[in-house]
Amino acid sequence: MDAAVSTMRSYLDFEKPVAEIEAKIDELRVVADGDVNVALDEEISRLQARASKTLSDLYAALTPWQKTMVARHPNRPHFRDYCDALITDMTPLAGDRAFGEDEAIITGFGRFRGEPVCILGQEKGWNTETRLRHNFGMARPEGYRKAVRLMEMADRFGLPVISFVDTAGAYPGIGAEERGQAEAIARSTEEALGLGVANVALVVGEGGSGGAVAIAAANRVLMMEHAIYTVASPEASASILWRNAARAQDAATNMKITAQDLLKFGIIDGIVPEPTGGAHRDPAAAIRSAGAAVAAALQEFAGMTPQAIRKAREDKFLAIGRK
Amino acid sequence: MNWISDVVRPKIKTLFKREVPENLWIKCPDTGQMVFHKEVEANQFVIPGSDFHLRMSATARLKAMFDQETWEEITFPEVPLDPLKFRDEKKYVDRLRDAKAKTGAVDAVRVGAGAVEGAQMVVAVQDFDFMGGSLGMAAGEAVIAALETAVARHTPCVLFAASGGARMQEGMFSLMQMPRTTVAVRHMREAGLPYIVVLTNPTTGGVTASYAMLGDVHIAEPGALIGFAGPRVIEQTIREKLPPGFQRAEYLKDHGMVDMVVHRHELKATIARLCRLLMKQPARDDGDAIARADAPAEAVAG
């Protein structure tokens, strides 16, 4: 993350109570101006305690819409941050060998805790330039076909696959349609389901629709505590259901998109706890707990035959929604 | 409200009411030509003259496919009703009840097994009249049941797709039908059995992005709208007018996404022929066809 971005504090609307307390702390610090002032120091630490209490209360009871805001927070760690911290020897591989290179999905091989793995990651970008380069994390058919190519390799070389999911959805454009966006997504899902190696998908921010499923048809699907996973983004859902995108809040509330709801439904397999106040307040801690959860998930499949891994994955998906 | 609306409107209403329920004439969406409904029905819901392919109910589709219009209805596991306790402008349970009453079906996909030109097949049909053919848990189970029945009976499976996409009212349960149905498609592939998809108007969203684009053969009906994102969404995203014919069957064929665009009257024969080829079964009018194919070879050998 850029230094300028990470030091700048930005608050979401619902974090106003915290913002007020922290502003007061800043004021007191200016007043103290480095002098030793016991009364002032006491006041500051009292306020700090209150701020962190307020923050943890707020985050313990986030509404689905608030979670949507957190999941899309500009300072929230992205694929790039997870990859930098968790993967060594990362060697990105580009191109679908048919049309082009799509940086909305980054693919490659690297080492996770020393062991070679295949990495698929959706990256939204972190400033204007990179957002454009990564097309805001909205992949085109080339991105999914590249993912298929990498998964085929992973299967052949017997390497587990780790996917980092973070997309509002696959890109809706003329070129994407012409080149078979739907088919590309379907093939990627099929490839993921047929892998004889274990795969783990972690929704780090936003899991948006088919564009997310394409790389999240995995043995274990995990979500960060404040991530969301949707059949269509709250805005798109609102425009379909109410013909009014402004009803996104209602859509978010009614459609059960939080990690907590989805775990209860048996749609996902686990939740990765985030530090108090969300992953963006302590990215390193969030990434550490993500790493531990992914490692534990992969460990479950160690020593299993390709057939058993495939069957376990298929059975898991077929069981969703069945009594 | 004024005296004109009080006096005049009721009369107009009764006038319309008399005409609509009987539904005797159908207007061609393409040419505006008025056609008698019996004539359209007898023509498999293709407008005579303009060849416009109207939407077809699941029942009409199954009748048109199976020999003697008879088939065995394949049932599928019951699914939890309204898992999200969802309501938008209307309760989801009410919408479901209305759709069931309107179509007489359990959900958006019906499955039949029977003979097509004498060969056994499983046919799944998505009915757009049932909540826009949307893919929810029940439709997902129906598609899975169709494919697994085909595997169990060692027959081809034909799927007629028609859908606006995911059943929004079921949220993530709906999205999960993409990987779930894909598991069943994979079983079909492993069994070495043909899976043929017929894309009808319209097929979009999560349906195209899963089982509808994973066929061994993709057949599209003329003029059918087929795509991932709907045209309205794309227009809003790129803020440009879309090219003519965009996302239509013929456009998809030009771009290599479907194998052929086939007139509805030719569908049954085309599908049956393809299945015979892929299943290594003899040609239909075997005697004559073999004689014709063999004739030149004999001449060369002689």
TrEMBL record, chain A:
Task: Quote the cellular component terms of the Gene Ontology held in the record.
Answer: acetyl-CoA carboxylase complex
Catalytic reaction equation(s)? N(6)-carboxybiotinyl-L-lysyl-[protein] + acetyl-CoA = N(6)-biotinyl-L-lysyl-[protein] + malonyl-CoA
**EC number(s) given by UniProt:** 2.1.3.15
Q: Which residues form the CoA carboxyltransferase C-terminal domain?
A: 39-300
Q: Which residues form a coiled coil?
A: none
Query: What's the domain of life for this entry?
Result: Bacteria
Free-text function comment from the UniProt entry: Component of the acetyl coenzyme A carboxylase (ACC) complex. First, biotin carboxylase catalyzes the carboxylation of biotin on its carrier protein (BCCP) and then the CO(2) group is transferred by the carboxyltransferase to acetyl-CoA to form malonyl-CoA.
The record's section on NCBIfam families has:
accA (TIGR00513), AccA_sub (NF041504), PRK05724.1 (NF004344)
Task: Quote the subunit structure annotation.
Answer: Acetyl-CoA carboxylase is a heterohexamer composed of biotin carboxyl carrier protein (AccB), biotin carboxylase (AccC) and two subunits each of ACCase subunit alpha (AccA) and ACCase subunit beta (AccD).
Instruction: Provide the family line.
Output: Belongs to the AccA family.
Task: State what protein this is by name.
Answer: Acetyl-coenzyme A carboxylase carboxyl transferase subunit alpha
Organism this protein belongs to: Camelimonas lactis
Q: Which gene name does the record give?
A: accA
TrEMBL record, chain B:
Q: What is its EC number?
A: 2.1.3.15
Residue stretches spanning the membrane? none
Asked whether the keyword Lipid metabolism is assigned, the reply is: yes
The processes (GO biological process) annotated in the record are: fatty acid biosynthetic process; malonyl-CoA biosynthetic process
State where the protein is found. Cytoplasm
**Which top-level group of life is the source organism from?**
Bacteria
Record Pfam families: Carboxyl_trans
Which InterPro entries did the record assign?
Answer: AcCoA_carboxyl_beta, Acetyl_CoA_COase_Trfase_b_su, ClpP/crotonase-like_dom_sf, COA_CT_N
Any one Gene Ontology molecular-function term assigned to this protein's record: ATP binding
Print the keywords alphabetically: ATP-binding, Cytoplasm, Fatty acid biosynthesis, Fatty acid metabolism, Lipid biosynthesis, Lipid metabolism, Nucleotide-binding, Transferase
Predominant location category: cytoplasm
Give the top-level enzyme category. Answer: transferase
Q: Which residues form the CoA carboxyltransferase N-terminal domain?
A: 24-293
Q: Its catalytic activity?
A: N(6)-carboxybiotinyl-L-lysyl-[protein] + acetyl-CoA = N(6)-biotinyl-L-lysyl-[protein] + malonyl-CoA
Q: Which family does it belong to?
A: Belongs to the AccD/PCCB family.
**Entry-linked HAMAP family:** AcetylCoA_CT_beta
**Which function does this protein serve?**
Component of the acetyl coenzyme A carboxylase (ACC) complex. Biotin carboxylase (BC) catalyzes the carboxylation of biotin on its carrier protein (BCCP) and then the CO(2) group is transferred by the transcarboxylase to acetyl-CoA to form malonyl-CoA.
Its assembly, as annotated, is: Acetyl-CoA carboxylase is a heterohexamer composed of biotin carboxyl carrier protein (AccB), biotin carboxylase (AccC) and two subunits each of ACCase subunit alpha (AccA) and ACCase subunit beta (AccD).
The cross-references to NCBIfam families, in alphabetical order and at most eight, read: accD
Name used for this protein in its record:
Acetyl-coenzyme A carboxylase carboxyl transferase subunit beta
Q: Which organism is it from?
A: Camelimonas lactis
